[in-house]
């Protein structure tokens, strides 16, 4: 009989997937882990207690990252939804959608480097507002492209039907379009939140080190060779997205193809 | 649309002006010497080739791996637990993946410790260079580990949406063997439905920043790292050369975006 090797391969895949998460948690609980020891000299909650004591500003970074990502997620999602409608009904929607792809495909860090002059002139350099605006500039095209698949002939027919039945444009928006787009709005919010949450290059250019989000902190700890705090920052960086993914996973890829 | 378009063109025009000496503290007027200097030094072409090679190798290996996983484990990955497991790596950003690879593959990292305990090495210097190395091993492995789960989920979704299972059964019924079904049904449909996203990911990898910044070497550098190094250096006279590279890179990705997305616009919303 042919041996069934699938369970072993699947177990290996699951182990490989879980390994980074487990490793990061263990590293964040460690200290005095010198070469060539396979296990750390200290294992406990010292690093986490230090963080809660805010000695390294990690808690502040977590709050700053959350504020920035929530702002970018909410503003990009709603503006993307509203503007994508105008784009869909426009005569030149093909060209307009193509324009949206330009900032989307360009590396954010290069975009930031070329835009930094304008941010400096507008007083948006090195502050949270500037970082939110900069991240919005890359999250908004994503939202615009994302909602492109929502507007179609069927939605237009619904809108026409409501108008025929005497509904106002406000009623159409709040009673028809918003309920229909609810799940897509949620997915888009998650996605734009994650774009902002994971962003490093653009934030480092526009924030010039003054806006210390979690990704900036991870880099600082790598530079300082403080791997324990680096791992702790990584844990704070990856666990909120894990929770979001859990809620998001049923919908994400349905809209990609 | 102005929100999206104006900053892009403003950034491009600024970079273009800087690259031709029309903007910038030390520049005095129109000149093409920065462009000549960039092409004469050859660093841009080297960096572009290096970035493209890394992107292609990472993509080919990732797509190959994801196709294999999809082909072999599609039924198992439908189960709730395994399905969620495949989503988990998407929660790891590039900066964390780079940090993790350093912890694993550096000379004082996890595998070096194991190699020492097993008696394979006696000191850290004997452990091979797997991060910040000339072959970009660390960068490629990181990209692959980030991309395989994404492409697997994508291919699984296409597999269901395009009803490849039913088409495969039909092909079998008509006398095709497993190999033919894979080559004539599975692969063409999957690749045809996803090639735009694959091309898009090539562009994303070409401009990747965090991972090559952590795991790359001094020279050659990937494009984004090179551009930021040049535009943020202390020697102000060299900044214009950084903007030359930024302009070329922007033109390349813009042309690619036009080629990818312009012809399809007519029918994309006709659902």
Describe the model.
- The complex is a heterodimer of chains A (257) and B (271).
- Chain A is mainly α and 257 residues long.
- Chain A has a single domain, classed as MetI-like fold (Orthogonal Bundle).
- Chain A contains 11 helices and 2 strands, in the order αββαααααααααα.
- A two-stranded antiparallel ribbon of chain A has the order 1-2.
- In chain A, helix 3 crosses helix 8, helix 4 (93-105) crosses helix 6 (128-148) and helix 8 runs antiparallel to helix 11.
- Chain B is an all-alpha fold and 271 residues long.
- Chain B has a single domain (42-232), classed as MetI-like fold, CATH 1.10.3720.
- Chain B is built from 12 helices and no strands.
- Chain B has helices at residues 2-19, 33-41, 43-73, 80-87, 94-105, 110-117, 137-161, 164-173, 178-206, 210-215, 223-231, 239-261.
- In chain B, helix 3 (43-73) packs antiparallel against helix 9 and helix 5 packs across helix 7.
- The longest helix of chain B has 31 residues, at 43-73.
- The two termini of chain B are 24 Å apart.
- The mean pLDDT of chain B is 90.
- Chains A and B meet through helix 1, helix 3, helix 4, helix 5 and helix 6 of A and helix 1, helix 3, helix 4, helix 5 and helix 6 of B.
């Amino acid at each position: 009989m042919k041996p069934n090797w699938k369970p072993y391969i699947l177990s290996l895949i699951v182990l490989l997937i879980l390994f980074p998460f487990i490793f990061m948690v263990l590293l964040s609980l460690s200290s005095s882990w010198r070469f060539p020891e396979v296990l750390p000299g200290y294992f406990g909650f010292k690093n986490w207690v230090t963080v809660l004591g805010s000695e390294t500003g990690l808690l502040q970074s977590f709050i700053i990252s959350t504020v920035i990502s929530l702002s970018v997620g909410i503003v990009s999602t709603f503006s993307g939804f509203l503007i994508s409608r105008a784009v869909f009904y426009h005569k030149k929607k093909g060209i307009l959608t193509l324009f949206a792809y330009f900032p989307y495909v360009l590396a954010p860090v290069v975009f930031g480097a070329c835009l930094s002059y304008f941010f400096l002139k507008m007083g948006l350099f090195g502050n949270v507002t500037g970082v939110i605006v900069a991240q919005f500039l890359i999250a908004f095209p994503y939202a615009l492209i994302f909602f492109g698949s929502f507007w179609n002939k069927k939605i237009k027919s619904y809108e026409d039907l409501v108008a025929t039945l005497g509904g106002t444009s406000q009623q159409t928006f709040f009673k028809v379009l918003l309920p229909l787009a609810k799940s897509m709005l949620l997915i888009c919010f998650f996605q734009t939140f994650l774009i902002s949450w994971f962003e490093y290059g653009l934030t480092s250019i526009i924030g010039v080190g003054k806006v210390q989000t979690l990704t900036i902190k991870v880099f600082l700890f790598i530079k300082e060779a403080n791997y324990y705090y680096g791992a702790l920052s990584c844990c704070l960086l990856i666990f909120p997205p894990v929770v979001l993914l859990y809620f998001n996973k049923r919908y994400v890829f349905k809209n990609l193809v | 649309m102005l929100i999206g378009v104006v900053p892009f063109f403003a950034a491009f025009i600024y970079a273009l002006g800087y690259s031709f000496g029309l903007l910038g503290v030390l520049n005095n007027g129109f000149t093409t010497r920065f462009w000549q200097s960039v092409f004469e030094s050859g660093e841009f072409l080297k960096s572009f080739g290096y970035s493209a090679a890394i992107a292609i190798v990472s993509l080919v290996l990732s797509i190959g791996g994801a196709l294999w996983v999809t082909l072999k484990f599609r039924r198992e990955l439908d189960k709730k637990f395994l399905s969620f497991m495949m989503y988990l790596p998407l929660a790891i950003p590039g900066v964390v993946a780079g940090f993790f690879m350093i912890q694993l593959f550096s000379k004082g990292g996890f595998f070096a410790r194991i190699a020492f305990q097993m008696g394979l090495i006696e000191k850290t210097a004997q452990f091979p260079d797997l991060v910040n190395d000339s072959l970009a091993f660390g960068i490629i492995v990181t990209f692959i580990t980030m991309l395989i789960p994404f492409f697997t989920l994508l291919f699984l979704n296409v597999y269901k949406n395009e009803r490849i299972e039913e088409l495969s059964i039909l092909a079998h019924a008509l006398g095709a063997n497993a190999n033919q079904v894979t080559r004539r049904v599975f692969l063409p449909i999957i690749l045809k439905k996803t090639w735009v996203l694959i091309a898009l990911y090539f562009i994303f990898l070409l401009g990747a920043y965090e991972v090559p910044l952590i795991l790359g070497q001094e020279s050659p550098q990937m494009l984004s790292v090179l551009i930021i190094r040049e535009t943020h250096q202390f020697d102000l006279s060299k900044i214009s050369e950084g903007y030359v590279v930024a302009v070329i890179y922007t033109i390349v990705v813009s042309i690619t975006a036009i080629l990818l997305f312009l012809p399809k616009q007519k029918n994309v919303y006709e659902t």
